[in-house]
């Protein structure tokens, strides 16, 4: 909702999703570039939607294809950082971790609301 501040965990998680989305766009674009030399290469690296659920599904799908070192090497040859697979994996793990922090923040906010009611 506009005007309602988010928790630190929610803000951090949203930032991670934005980073992953940018990574996915770079991977997809690089796959399209590679398709000039290897027709059909980009078929496995098509972007899904940009909702959190779709970003997670797309990232998981991309990582499945990138577990093949030969495939990952093709991206590195097109100037992707050598650690791009590890970086994407770490970002997904951090998103998962932030989900727990977000739940903790929500419980804290519920407690704050109850204390406010008592004071009123």
Question: How would you characterize this protein structure?
Answer:
- The chain contains four helices and no strands.
- The chain has helices at 8-34, 52-66, 69-77, 84-119.
- It has 120 residues and is mainly alpha-helical.
- Residues 101-105 have low confidence and may be disordered.
- The chain is elongated, with a radius of gyration of 19 Å.
- It starts with 7 loop residues before the first helix and ends with a helix.
- Helix 1 (8-34) packs antiparallel against helix 4.
Low-confidence stretches: 101-105
User: What assembly state would you assign to the polypeptide chains in this entry?
Assistant: single chain
Q: What fraction, in percent, of the residue positions are helical?
A: over 70%
Strand content: under 5%
* Basic shape: elongated
Give the topology string: H per helix, E per strand: HHHH
Radius of gyration: 19 Å
Give the termini distance in whole angstroms.
Answer: 25 Å
Enumerate how many helices there are, as a single number. 4
